[in-house]
Structures are given as structure tokens and as C-alpha cells.
Amino acid sequence: MARLIDTPLVDASLMEVAREIGPVLRQESNGSESQRRLTQGAVDALSSGGLLTMLTSKSMGGQEVNPITYASVVEEISRSDPSSGWSLVNPLLWAFLCSRLPDQGADELLGNDPRAWFTAAIAPPLTAVPVDGGYIVSGRGLFASNCHHAAWFAAVCEVKPGQDRNGKAADATKPIWVYVAAQDCRILDTWHVLGLRGTGSDDFEVENAFVPHHRAFPLTTEFVAGSNFQGPLYQFSLMGMITAALPSVMLGIARTAIDEVATLAEIKTPAGNSSSLRSRPSAHSSIAQAEAAYRSGRALLYETLIRIWESTLAGNQISWSDRSDIVLAATNAALQSAHATELMYRLAGTAGIYQHQRLERFFRDMQVARQHRFYTEARYETFGQMYFGLQPDYSLTLL
Amino acid sequence: MARLIDTPLVDASLMEVAREIGPVLRQESNGSESQRRLTQGAVDALSSGGLLTMLTSKSMGGQEVNPITYASVVEEISRSDPSSGWSLVNPLLWAFLCSRLPDQGADELLGNDPRAWFTAAIAPPLTAVPVDGGYIVSGRGLFASNCHHAAWFAAVCEVKPGQDRNGKAADATKPIWVYVAAQDCRILDTWHVLGLRGTGSDDFEVENAFVPHHRAFPLTTEFVAGSNFQGPLYQFSLMGMITAALPSVMLGIARTAIDEVATLAEIKTPAGNSSSLRSRPSAHSSIAQAEAAYRSGRALLYETLIRIWESTLAGNQISWSDRSDIVLAATNAALQSAHATELMYRLAGTAGIYQHQRLERFFRDMQVARQHRFYTEARYETFGQMYFGLQPDYSLTLL
Amino acid sequence: MASTPDQDYIQIAKDLGPVIQQYSDQAEREGRMPQVMWDALSDAGLLSLLSPKKLGGEEVDPITYSRIVEEISIHDAAAGWTLTNPLLFGLLCARLPQQGALDILGKDPRARLAATFGPPLKAVRVEGGYRISGYGPFASNCHQAAWMGAICQVVEEGPDNPELDINQRSRLIWGYYPAKDCQILDNWHVMGMRGTGSNDILVKESFIPDHRCMPFGAEYELGPDFQGPLYRFPFIGMAVGGLTPMVLGIARRAIDEAAALAKVKTPAGSSKLLWEHPATQHKIAQAEGVVRAGRALLYETLNARWEATLAGEEVTIDHRADLMLAASTAASNAAYAVELMFSLGGTTGIYVNSPLERCFRDMQVLRQQRLLADGRYETFGQMYFGLEPDFITIVI
Amino acid sequence: MASTPDQDYIQIAKDLGPVIQQYSDQAEREGRMPQVMWDALSDAGLLSLLSPKKLGGEEVDPITYSRIVEEISIHDAAAGWTLTNPLLFGLLCARLPQQGALDILGKDPRARLAATFGPPLKAVRVEGGYRISGYGPFASNCHQAAWMGAICQVVEEGPDNPELDINQRSRLIWGYYPAKDCQILDNWHVMGMRGTGSNDILVKESFIPDHRCMPFGAEYELGPDFQGPLYRFPFIGMAVGGLTPMVLGIARRAIDEAAALAKVKTPAGSSKLLWEHPATQHKIAQAEGVVRAGRALLYETLNARWEATLAGEEVTIDHRADLMLAASTAASNAAYAVELMFSLGGTTGIYVNSPLERCFRDMQVLRQQRLLADGRYETFGQMYFGLEPDFITIVI
Question: Chain A residue closest to B362 (CA)?
Fold first, then answer.
């Protein structure tokens, strides 16, 4: 069946890179799974051909692609190995956020190495105490994907009362986003999970690490982009970039699950039945529902991203309803992908339970990916709150 | 919440045994999981207190309990460890079927050791060639649960044309059920799966094993029970016994999943939310739907088993509509249990993805158990066929 | 006492099938139960099912009651509703002072009752009782009623300031007034359950003497004529037992109609009869499975509670939650089954002369009823976690 | 050519909103579109939307067409149906001999057409044409039609032995006869979509000359007045583009009505407005999500196919499957959304004067329509696996 979206906004050469490294990622996926973090082979593949600098600005040596290209590349990678897709998404998102740092900070993080790996912990927040020249950061960060390869650990921090540079008492402020050097963080061995095992999303601890002001910024809806980040990409919302990325991992999983079962259906005869799977009405209905779920989830996601990107290009600010539309498109794409994958797992019958089947791993990967709070069912309530003009319960939506 | 079914038909002393060994089975479950078959500790626990002879006749030293007790015990065991529950079900079912053997066969299998372990392969059939005094059996059997502990390997066989005892050509007949000695079977290392890992359900191969006539019987709706099996239990249908057993494993999984989450809900506050899980409307609705699914699935299962058991006690034959009712009650209980477990996994959020949580394992166990063809969604069609008076596509229903 | 359920009564209900069917269309058209159908129920003794034997009633057990409503509802769910509704409001007479119960059921144990159970009317305290006024919705079978029941909020004379009890909550009472004191509004124009005559009503200054009312809440004393175990059974249990069988009846009818259709209909573009299609077999089984499971849970729960009542056990909040959950489950299962059967019927089911169309519409309305609605899943969850339930009827 | 979609035409459709709303209840009551509403559509040029420019029609692109039907259906899905139905049957004139197309659209490009597309009528070969007779269901807007279209099976004179083609399959033709030759039966008494006037019809011995008919199948030649790309767009695509927007319109309306209700209604027993309940926020979002996703897939698929048509590309069986899947998905999503909104509305939605009640009924009927029904998922699966599809319209 034809792929339905083929927009000229997608950078064809990066898609070509993504397709070329697919077989390598697929081959490395067993190793990543068993060592519970990406193998060096997978890291090297992802580091090739500019993928790691997709969201870094051109003036700093990056590709500065649009969100639609980002989404397409992530889906393509995830079709080969969801853990690799997830591991590409994360460093890029936190590199993207360097655009909101003071110039000195962005230079320090990306100036020498535009391909630096980042990891981050979003909730619950760590604590930051104001001191002369910056903050003292402490606490435990959860789900720090790819932390084993990261040079920098980003984190949301709650700011406690402390001292300003003149030794006077400084009040608590709004939450901030900080980048801590990797050597100041201790990784804990916590990532023993059902799926997405290759992402190495362990927890970490920081104790009294100093973060200078130029490696921190306040988490607010309004921001000023750094002087190396004047392109429209950096006016796009964080939630928009997350929406381009994480649901795309799930779309990639669903796509492969369908393809695997379609192949299986050609050959498999369910135990106890004389007719092959492909001639069974239940298979017809399942495959159609899975394709429909995948395609309609994808269609709304891209329609939304394209519309808001074109509005950004035209110089508009991201509006309240843009923000709620983003949440809705992401949630829908995620849940539809999960539904499609479950249909395919069900359809495969016992063929799907064996670990040597890709379907078994993709099913498990999906079960973990779908628990992410960016787009669980609870986000429907978030959309509903914004729809009725209430402050959303999930504040990330506004960033 | 009170347990809703409390029928005097359940043997209280066996339930007490099941409850007593629960902590042991729970403790052994990690070992069973990692070695992909039950630990000796779990096997020893299951061998205690008469559980292994529940379906063996009193005249052969067994307990000869009714199907309702069997179902209750299996659910109780499965609440502690689904793999143990599954592993209790299987040997008992195939011991139960010894009642349809010629007396000499039943004596050979159960006479010396009424607690002998059995395994079986049901589909696809192996092949049996008639020879003087019996059959020569060959082929590959799938999903032979607990084969590592089994003294006897049961199997469905297709009968090929061969020779009778006078050397004359013997025609192919209906399928038969045979018991092959363990030493004639070679176990293959195939059980690398998503869940129910502790059941050791590997495949096996047999090559030209001789099975005497007294260890075989034809698979037909009509049968004559052996002289040691004259109690009403042995008039109950095979599908009825399977229905008492396997959906009960799934009910046990669902019960524990709900209990785990109810406990979790008291303490867990979802990341990014200020209110605890127990005060969230979505948790209220989920827990109620899960309880409803579990309870109604269980209610119909027991109502059906009790009705047909009482009819059997009254001397009635299992009727056509009894048989279809059994399929329906089993399918409903299985799917409702799966639904309840999925709701609870979803509700737990990221707490459910960690391997050290029981929920993660129970979720995986359910995903494997529900793929069993005894009660997948396809059995709805089987019921529908019988409802309209058609021959069912799934012939096991008639045994 | 008679074994449970009492098969003689159930047979009486079955025997009424033909007359219910005969007048079902008329009820639908006129938006209320025809008098001849009401008389048939009354003559068969069904309208005194829950009245005490001491007053000449039948005083059957809850399971028998539930089974009777189910039998009637298979033929016409609206008739089931019009039977169960006066019985439930008659049952509450057990909690009145003796004189009040005698006023209403003493001369005639047949419950010629309707009521408004929704937003309360206003009651002003006067000499010897209350003067009530207000607007009440869903007064089912109001056209047949001699007495009207009502939940009322006690207010001060003048502007509607509620009188508050010692916990600063507004005080609610339950009372009965003559049905002729209220004006029936012509507004029961609905998608389904049309035959129930659930019009809204208006009351202006009707007097309720003290012996015909009581505080509306969890605390009560039983009248001297109501000392049998039936009156100690929780009211939520009687509501569950009275309402849930209607959805079971509708679902049973829908499955039977769809199965009959499947044996004769060849869908457009197909060369096979409907019943030969795997999808038909699948849907029939799904529908049977969920309806039977909901039904099994309902009767199992009612039975367990009735046996406990006979044994003199207290009713805990968990028991109440169990009863309610059985209703939600049976209703949600039955609604799903009717969806499946409607989908199975294809275009046949869209015609207004198709029983499937009627079943579908009735079910869509019934599933919005408070006790049967999806929202009760949340109520159960609240009780499960020990929170205050949002559904007040649960404690009555 | 004009950019796609043509906003001027969409504005015309929007401007018709008030008149559609004004006569919507009358249409519902009378079981057909009132003449004044039909005239309004006709005067605005919408009835000649798909007729060729050479014959004085508008010849708009499929996307514009689809958007117009959606705009009309937001106000009244039955009106959307009554618009799209004659347009689709007029479109098939493109495949007639020139004289036939001139007969029907030549003097007046407005499609005053109805048709029976279901089980075929019988056609007997006679001098210069066919003599047709039979019973046809669902002849929507037959009351307004000047011409009736029909699928007919060619049979031998006498007993109804079909004439077989060289593959031993019975031969089907599509033809047009004067509407006055058929008798309209009074049987359109349905749950929803009442205003479409989809009565069944009877024809006895009407003559169809050869130039007003053609073989019914995948092979055809376009008439000289129909050389624009619109007529090379697959018919299944036009059916998808014409029918699917109705379910989108109903869902849009249901969401808007439920959201408006949620801002003013306080559910019985609650102290908060409906919109303050998390469950309301949840349902609104689920509904918006599924409707938008179905809509995005529909327009994306239509756009992709229209651009391919403009570029002269062939239509493969996969393209046809894609178009059909977009319709099934949008319909199933929209039906789910309406369910959610109906459930959100609670008892408010059961009253016949509630727009939610109307949306719900209309949706229940529309989802049984062949192209939009669940069964098309199976058809897609058959095509996916390379089997013969069970839904013949797909290849037309």
C-alpha cells in the first residue's frame, strides 16, 4: 500500500540516511536489548550522516531541519529498532532546548561538539538553590534515556530559597531547566523493564553540583532565543517538538507490526484451522482496522504539524489552540498506534509470543512507550481543559 | 470486597492447602521465570497435600474432586504464580483423560504412582501407524507444558494406513489419543517467550515410538470410562475440565493485578500530578470496570460449571448446548480477565513497566495465556456455529 | 417460606406475554401504558408484589420480583418499567408511620403510585405537616397514579432558603400526596421507553400530613405491618433488582430477533444467508456471552444479599457497592449486546416496524438512567477507595 | 484551474445554513426534502456541481464537492444526502452515449435524479433498448426526481433466467428511465435520516433506449462532453467524497451541541457544571481526536488521488482500497464520537427536540449504509491480501 503522506517539507537526503542505517540498527538491536542500552555499533550508526545535529542551528554547524523532517526520520529509524528511534529523539530534544540558554551556555554545550549527546529528567523536579553565579543542584532524576552516552544531563529543578551573589537571601522562583555536566551525575542501575530496553533509561543522582547561570533558564511560555538560534525552528514549542518525535516512534512500531503480520499471514496457518490466515475474515478485518488506526493517527499528526509549522514560518506565535491541537494529535497518534500494534499481536496468535519474532519485541516496546505521560489517555482531559479555557493540569503543554 | 461465590461444592481443605503453599510459589517464581521451567521447590510445593491427585479416582488413591473445586484451587494457585497454576492444570487434565483408557493402560500410568506428571501436545497431531499390538508414533509436539517433569507425554495422533495384528492392511481411522513414555521423547529448547516462562512449554520430538493399544483411545464424543473411573467426574467433558482450569488461571492473574494496583493506588502519586491515584476519577472508573470484568467473567464460569456438574450428578449426558455453553463461558471469562488486567496495567502507569513489579510479570503472563486457542475470540464463532446447529470448526468442543 | 425464586409467580408473568405484546404499540404511540395493560398487571396480582401480606399483598422475595420484571421486559421494557416503578415507591411506605402506610396501601395493597425522585420539590413546614410545591421530572406512569411520592427539600417560608440540619446540610424529606394535586405536563417525547409516560409534573401547595412523610436518608424504622425480611433488604438492592432486568429483557429480545432474522435474510451482495457468515456467529456469541455474564452476576449478587438478609446480617457499604456494580455491569454488557445485534441486523434494523429498532431505542434511553449509567463505575471506585460516594441513593 | 478546494463554492454552501436549518424539522416530519429547500440548493447551483462545464454545469473538483456536502450536513445530514445522491447518479451520465447524457443533463444541467443501486431490476432485451420491471429499495429523493437510474440484470423473456455473459456471470446494465414510470411506496419510516425520502419503488415495463444505458462494470468510455479530469476520478472516490462528509458533519454538530450543553447543564446530583467534570473534558477530547483524525485521512486521501488524476496516473486496486478505507475509518470514528457525545448529554439527549437525539439517530442509520458499514474493513483486508473483494462498487 502506498504511503499516504509525501510532503515536500521532508528532507529527502536525511530520510535516505535513515533508510541506509536501518539494517545496521536492526542487527544491533539484540545487543542493545540484552545490555539494556544502545550498543556502540548503534550509537555509531545514529551518529552518521548528520542525524544527530538535525535540531542544531546551521550557524553552529547543525542541520536545522523542520519538525516534519524530524518526525519522518524518527519514524523511519523506529521501524528498524524502536529503542534506536527513542534514543535519537531524546538527545535532539535537549539539544533543541539549548536555544533558550544564554549564548555562553549554548556555546559551551554545542560550540565544540555539535553532536554532543544529552539526556534529561523532567519529573519529578530536582532542587536548585541559588548561589553566587548560579545554582547548587541536587536530587534524583528518573528515566534518563541514553544517559550512558550523554555528556550533559538536563533536568527540571524546583528553585529553593538561597543566596544571591551579594550574599543576600534570594526567594524561590519558578522552575528552571539546567544542564549538569555528566561527571557530576551518578547513574543508578534501574532500567529493568518490559520493553524499550535498549534505551538505557536509568535513573541518576546529583549531589550539590554547581550549575552556572549560563547553563540554566526559567521554564516559562515566553522566552528569548539565543543569537545562534534565530531561525523559525526555535520558535516552535517544546511540546510541538515532542509531538513530532515520540508519537513517531510509536507510528514506526505500528508500521513494522503490521508489515510483520502481513508477511506472516501469507504463510501461517493457525493451529487447528485448515485455511491460511490470509483467507480468514477476522484477519481481513484486523488488518484493515490496524491500517486505519495507523494511517488516521499519522494523518492528523502530520496535518497538525504542517499547519502549525507553516503558521510559524509566517511569523505567528504558537497560540493556545495550537498548543491544545498538538496535545490532541499526539495523544491520538500514540493511542492509535498502540491499538494497531495490539490488533496485530492478537492476530498473530501464538506466533507472536516467541522472543525471536520481531513482533514480540515491538509489542513489548509499544507497551512501554504508551505509558509515557506525554500522551496517555489522561491527556484527553488536558485537551478538554484547554478546550473549555481552563488552565491545563499538565503544564508542559504551555512550554 | 467480598468474594461473591462461596459454594459448598468447593473442598475447603484443598483450598487451605492451596493458600498455604502460596508464599512458597511466589518466592520460587523468580527462579522458575529465569530457568524457564518450574524450580524443584515449586514442584515440591505443588506435589504436597493431594493437589496433584485432585482428578485421579478415589479407587486409585486420588482425591476425585468435582470440577468446581478444581477451578477454585487453580485460581488460588495462580494468584500466587500463574506459571505454577498453569503447571498444575496440565498434568491433571492428562491424568483425567486416563479414565478413557483400557484398564491396563490406566493401571500402568497411575497404578504405581497416582501423582505421576503428564504433559501433552494437542495440535497439530502427530502420526500413528497401526502395527501388531498398537501403534508406531512419530512427529513433533508443540507447547508441551511441564515436559521436563513429565513421566508420560500424551499426544493427539492422526492414524495413517498400516498393518493390523495379522499383518493385514489396516485403514486410517479417526484421530487417537496416546501416551508415550518420556524416555522415547526428545525435548527441544523452544520456550523463549513473553510470559508464562516458568511453565517450560517446550516442543518435543518422537521417532518411531511403540505405543501399545492399552495406552491409546479414539478421540470421539462417545466413550466408556475405565472400571476405576465410574464416578460422575469422568462423565464430565474434556472441554468442561479445560474450562474449569485454564480460564481460572487467567482469573487468578486478573485478581492479583487488581489487588496490586489497589495497593499501589493508596501510595502512588502519578508523576506531574499533585493528587494521589486513589482520588483520580480515571482510577475510580478503571478499578470498577476491572472488578466488573473479573466478577462477571467468574460468575458466568461458575454458574455454567455448577449447572452442568449438577446435571451430570443427576445422571444426564453432556448435551450439545451444554458443550456450547462451556465454550462461551470459558471464552468470556478469559477475555474479561485479560481486559481487567490490561486496565490495571494501564492505570499503574510507569509503575507497571518495571520487572520487579509483580504487575509487569502478570501482564506478560496474561498476554501469553490469552493467545491460547481454547478461548481466543475465534471461539465466539465456534459458539455461533453451534448456536445455529452447525458442526463446530473447533472439534475439541465435542470431546 | 416458598423456595426462591417462586416459579408460580414467574409463570403468571409469562402468561401475561400475549396481552403485553398486543398493547405494546399502542403504549408506544400514546406515550403511556394503556389502561387495559395496567388492569391486566393489576388483576394478576403483580401490582401488590411487594406489599406486605398483613395488608393483603404478596410480599415476594427480591429474586422473584426481579425475575418477574425480566419476563415482562422481554416483551416490552416500558411495561417492565411501569410495573417496577410503582412497586419501588410503594416499598418505601414501609418506612412511614403506620397511619401513612394504611392511607396508601391499607384499603388497596396495589401500588397505584408514581413519584419524582430527581431534583427535590420545596416543602414548607406548616401545622401538622408540610405544604409542598415545585417542578418534578420523570414522573413515570403518572397517568395511572392515585398517589404521588416526592423528594422534597425543607425550606423557610418566603424566598427559598433551605432549612439546614445540625450538620449544615439541607434537610430532605420523602412524602406522598394525592396525584390529583399535580398537573401533568405534555413533554414525554423521547427516543425510546415511550410507553412509560414519564412526563414531568407541577405541584402547587399540596399538603402532606406528618404521617405521610419521613426524613429521606439512611436511618429509618419499619412500620408494624412491614416486619418481614423483604423490608430489611436494602433499597438500593431493590432498585438494582427492579431496573436491571429491563436491560436484560431488551437484550434477550434483541438477540432472539436478530437470530431469527439471520436465518432468513440474505444480505445484499451476498450469496449466503446471514447466519452462515462467520461475523454473524461471532456477534451472536459475543452478545450471548456478555448478557449471560451480566445476568449471572446480577442474580448471584441478589441471592447472596438475600440470604444474608434472611440470616439477619447487617448491610455494609461494600454490599451496597457490590449491588450497584452488578447493575452497571449488566447494563453496560446488555447495551453492548444490543449494539452488536443492531449492527447484525443491518438496514433491516433501521425501520420503525423492526423490533430491533425498538430494542435499540429503548436501550439507548434506559442506559442513561442514573442507576444504570456509566457514571456508576466512578461511584464504585470512590467506595472502593473509601471516599464519599457521589450517588446518594446508594445509602438509602 | 481554480485552487483546490474552491472557497467561493464552500461559502455558497455555508450561506445556505439558515434555510436548511429552517426546514430541517419539516423534512424530518414529512420524510422527504421540502420543495423550498430543494429549490434553494438548486438556485445556488449546487445541483449542477458535478455536471460538465460544456453542458452548463460547475464541474468542481472532488475536494470542493466533499467540503460542500460537509457544510450542508453540519446543519442537516439528510439534506447532505439529498444533495449528494442525485449528483452521484448524474455523474454516471459521463459514461453514457452522447445522446443519453444530452437527454438527461443537456437541457438542464441540474441533476434531478434518483436511483436504485441495490438488488437489480430485471431488463428484457427489446428492439432499440430494454424493457425493465421490478422492485427497488432506497430510492432517495425520488419525490424530486425527473429521471430514475437503476442497476438491472439482463434476463430472458418469460421466467427470470438471467442472460449470462461469456464468463457465465449474469450481465448487469445501468440505465435511466423517466421517474413518472415508477410507483413510490410509502415505506420510509425509519429511525433517522428521515428527510431523505428513501422510499422503495416499483417499476412495470418501462422502456430504456440503448443510448440511455450502458454495461455496469469497470470498463467504460467517457462521452465527448465529459473529457475533464473530474470524470476520470474513480467513482468509488466520488462516493467516498460524497458520503463520508455526512458523518463528519453529524459528528461536528454533535460535539458542538454537547460542548454548548456542558457549559450550562448541572447534572442531577452534582454541584458542578458538566464541563467542569474530568469525564466531560475526556470525552470531548476523545471525540475531537477521532473525528479530526478521520477527517484528515479523508481529505489527504482524496487530495492524493485527485493530484494523481490531474497528473494522468492510472487508478490501481490499491488506490481504490485506500479510498474505501478512508471512508470506513472516518465513519467508524465519527460514530464513536457521536456515541461519546450522546453519553455526555445524559438524559438531555433522549428528548426528540434535542439536536443530540437527532444526530444520534441519523448516525445510527448512516453507519448501516453499505459504503460506511463495518463490513468494509473486511473488504479492505481481502484486497490487502489480493483476494477478490466482496464489494462490487469498489471497481466501478
Answer: A194
Q: Does B357 touch chain C (CB under 8 A)?
A: no
Structural domain A236-398, CATH architecture: Up-down Bundle (1.20)
Domain A12-99, classified CATH 1.10.540.10, yes or no? yes
Closest residue in chain C to residue A285, using alpha carbons only: C279
A274-280: average pLDDT:
70
Hey, are the CB atoms on A124 and B273 less than 8 Å from each other? no
First to last CA, chain B: 37
Q: Which fold has domain A117-218?
A: Butyryl-CoA Dehydrogenase, subunit A; domain 2 (2.40.110)
pLDDT digits (tens, 9 = 90+) for D27-74: 999 999 999 999 999 999 999 999 999 999 999 999 999 999 999 999
Reported as a single tens digit per residue, the pLDDT across B182-218 is 999 999 999 988 889 999 999 999 999 999 999 999 9
At A273 the pLDDT is: 57
Q: Output the nine-digit C-alpha cell for A285.
A: 478485518
Residues of A in contact with B192 (CB under 8 A): 354-356
Global pTM reads: 0.83
pLDDT band at B134 (very low <50, low <70, confident <90, very high): very high
Look up the CATH superfamily of D233-395.
Butyryl-CoA Dehydrogenase, subunit A, domain 3 (1.20.140.10)
A21, A49, A258, D116, D214 from A288: Cα distances, Å: 30, 36, 10, 29, 33
- Tell me whether residues B192 and A354 touch, CB distance under 8 A: yes
What is the pLDDT, as a whole number, of residue B6? 58
Domain parsing of chain C, residue ranges: 6-95, 112-215, 233-395
Cα maximum dimension of chain A: 83
CA distance D154 to chain C (A): 17
C276 CA: distance to closest CA in chain D (Å) = 15
Q: Which residue has the higher pLDDT, C246 or A394?
A: C246
| Three-class secondary structure of residue C113 per DSSP | strand
Per CATH, the homologous superfamily of domain D6-95 is: Acyl-CoA dehydrogenase/oxidase, N-terminal domain (1.10.540.10)
pLDDT at A4 over 70: no
Distance CA B3, CA A171 (A): 55
Under 8 Å CB pairs connecting chains B and C tally to 138
**D14 interfaces chain C, CB cutoff of 8 Å:** no
Q: B279: which chain D residues are within 8 Å (Cβ-Cβ)?
A: none
Subunits touching A (CB < 8 Å, at least 3 pairs)? B, C, D
